[in-house]
Each structure stands twice: as C-alpha cells, then as structure tokens.
Amino acid sequence: MKFPAALDELTEYLKQLPGVGRRGAERMALAILEWDSGQLRDFGTALASLPETVGTCPQCGAVAAKGQLCDICSDPKRDVSQLCVVETMSQLFAVEKGNYFRGRYLVLGGRISPLDGEDGSNLRIDLLRERAALPETREVILALSSDVEGRATAAFLAELLAGLPVKLSRPALGLPAGANLSYADGATIAAAFSNRMDMK
Amino acid sequence: MKFPAALDELTEYLKQLPGVGRRGAERMALAILEWDSGQLRDFGTALASLPETVGTCPQCGAVAAKGQLCDICSDPKRDVSQLCVVETMSQLFAVEKGNYFRGRYLVLGGRISPLDGEDGSNLRIDLLRERAALPETREVILALSSDVEGRATAAFLAELLAGLPVKLSRPALGLPAGANLSYADGATIAAAFSNRMDMK
After folding, report:
1. Which segments of A49-164 does DSSP mark as H helices, in order?
2. Distances from the Cα of B33 to the Cαs of A45, A56, B195, in angstroms?
3. Backbone angle region of B120, left / alpha / beta, with phi > 0 → left and psi within -120 to 50 → alpha
C-alpha cells in the first residue's frame, strides 16, 4: 500500500521537522487527513505567509513580527546595560526560562564552524560590535555552547570586543541543579571543583 | 519573550499533530522559520489542497487519490476472496507490514464506542455489508483491536454478517514474536496457553 502522491509530498515536508522520522511523519499525515478543510487552509496559510509575517528584530536578531522590534527589545523594563550573546532562538528561550537574566540579547544566528563552512560571515557579528559599543552597554555575557565550536566562537568574540570598555563574562561551569556527582562527566566535575564556592 | 502572533498560530497547529507537545511544537516552529519561502509555500499548498487531492477509496475507505480506487483495490494481484476489516489506516499499514495478508481491506473509520458518542453511524458498516455480500468474498477477517471497544465492535459485526455465506475469522491471540514470557501480561499468557500449538 503506497500513499497517494499528495500525501507522500506532505509526509516529505513533515519529515523535515526536528525530531520527526519517517514513521512519525506518516502518522502525522494520516492524522492531518482527518482535519477539516478550513483548518487545513488556515494551517497552510500560516505556513506560506510566514516570510511576510515573521522576521527578525533589527536590534538583536530574535524572532519578531515583520519589521518590528522583538518583545524584549521593545520592553522598557529590560536592563539595557547587559547584553547576552546566544547562538540561536532556542538558547534565548532557555535563558529566559531561567528567569534570572533581565538584560537584552543578541542572537548570533549560529557559531563559527569552519568544518560546516560557517566562517562567521552569516552571523550577526557586526550587529554585536555595534551593540557592544553603545555607551549604555556595560557587560556582554557570552552565553554560547560550551562545546568546541561554541568556545572557539566565544574566544573569537572576546578578542573582537577586547578594545571596548565593556565587561566580558560567560555563564559559570559546574554541576547542574539537582545533579548527582555519580553521573556527572569528568570535565563538569573538574570545572565544578576548580570553581568551587565558599560556604558561608 | 513571547512568540510573534503569527508564529504562535503556527505553533498551535503543530501542537495538534500526534505526539507533539508545546515544547516540540515551539521547536518545530523555530525550525520552520529557517525554511526558504518557496518551501513554505509548497508545504502550505500541500496542506491546503489536501481535501481536493486526497480522498477515500470508494471500495474500501482507505486513503486514495481523490476520486480513485486505492492502491490495493486497484491491484489485480490481490486476492478478492479475503476481506480484512480494520479500524484505521494505521492498522491497515500495520497488517501490510506483516507481509502475509494478500487480500483486500475494509477500513471502518473507527469503532463503536458509546462512551465517546460513536454509535456506528459514522463507520463504513453498510459498505462492509455490501462487500461481504459479494459472491467473490469467501472470508471476512475482523482484525479490530483486542480492547473492550474493539472486541464489542467485532462481536457486533460478526452478528451482522452471520447470515451471509462467508467465513468469519480474527487474528490469533498469543505471545508476540520474540517475546519473553516474563514480561507478557496475564491475558496474553492465558490466550497463548489456551490456543497452544502442537509441535510437530
């Protein structure tokens, strides 16, 4: 039994979503078949009109309604003196989930990774330099991934911003909250011990 | 940080897909943002045009190109004497995966479940009666779920077809292939023992 061509096409698109394999895409396609035509049309329109409705914030590169500042850059209560540099929108959401950081962001759009052909020209490095040079910016937190490319990108950015009168920092390395030492990897344990905190 | 309204709307649709929660839908929406506009338009069109391109086979209720017989009903090599009744398309695919059954299908479209308000009026029961009454149909295999509603529906259908000169059967109950007795539930073990097979 083969899917009709139109359903096959739909399955191909669904398969490109993160975390969706062939089986999952087929299951989704069969479920979508049960939707009524109004719902399908609206879903289809929501997808097709995305390039016209959603863009990136000109100040930070986060998702925003087309041509507008994002939710955070347009919030006067956010602290303009702190700028947190992340690679992707998902990292931005992760930091927001921490509910601690109240400054603003700069979404780089990836990291420098010569092996994947990313030399940095597609990243928002110029925008970062511009934002970091603003007189209100006091601290730049480089919250990039702590893997090889992330650390290399952070080192590159640190050098780039070294001449500016801003403080550079990065999130602490250590044991995750609620972690059991038995299951932590060696690099994490080494970082947690070398950065150990005084108990007062 | 809130999603722009258009992205929120997209997330709502993605959340309705089987196996997708809020987090997964947000992750998918962010990934979809990276697609180029041509791809988004084609995906959108594939969805919106589904009601015009995909329908159900008039002979069996399986998915098929609009107005056409499905792949199986139009295959002259399938055995017309056997009719396998399943609840859903996914069950049909599951039976096909077994690579054993070479007859044709009847996709009921659900099962009788008074608690969920399904009294059978939305199911293809008339079509089943019609197909079962055809002179070429020799055997009807009721391959419904073996839970309460599935068994009740199978019993109802068996009664409905009792007057017709067709053999009625259902798939065997027993241990799944490769199963370990230690992990089988009591009902499965009881079925496997009461239907035990002679070793020749």
Report:
1. 50-53, 89-98, 125-133, 148-161
2. 14, 10, 55
3. left
Calpha distance A109→A119 (Å, rounded): 12
User: Which residues have CB under 8 Å from A28's CB, separation 6+?
Assistant: A11, A14, A20, B17, B18, B19, B20
Q: Specify the DSSP class assigned to residue B115.
A: G
pLDDT in tens, A69-80: 999 999 999 999
Task: For A57, name the nearest residue in chain B, comparing CA atoms only.
Answer: B4
Contact A1/B at CB under 8 A = yes
Tens of pLDDT, residues B17-60? 999 999 999 999 999 988 989 999 999 999 999 999 999 999 99
Residue A8 to chain B, least CA–CA distance (Å): 10
Rounded-to-integer distance, Cα A71 and Cα A64, Å: 7
Please give the single-letter amino acid code of residue A84. C
**Residue B54: which of A6, A28, A47 has the nearest Cβ?**
A6
Contact A157, A142 (CB under 8 A): yes
List A residues 64-123 in contact with B (Cβ-Cβ < 8 A): 64-65, 68, 70-72, 88-90, 92-93, 96
pLDDT 10s digits, A21-60 = 999 999 999 999 889 899 999 999 999 999 999 999 999 9
Q: Per the confidence metrics, is the pTM higher than 0.90?
A: no
For residue A18, give the nearest of B31, B47, B90 by CB distance.
B31
B110 → chain A, closest CA residue: A34
Which residues of chain A lie closer than 8 angstroms to B31, CB-CB?
17-18
pLDDT value at A193 more than 80 = yes
Task: Provide the sign of the torsion angle of the four alpha carbons B57, B63, B65, B69, taken in this order.
Answer: negative
CB contact under 8 A, A19 and B24: yes
Q: How distant, in Å, are the alpha carbons of A83, A126, B43 from that of A130?
A: 12, 6, 37
- B-chain CB neighbours of A84 within 8 Å are none
The number of residues in chain A equals 200
Q: Does B23 touch chain A (CB under 8 A)?
A: no
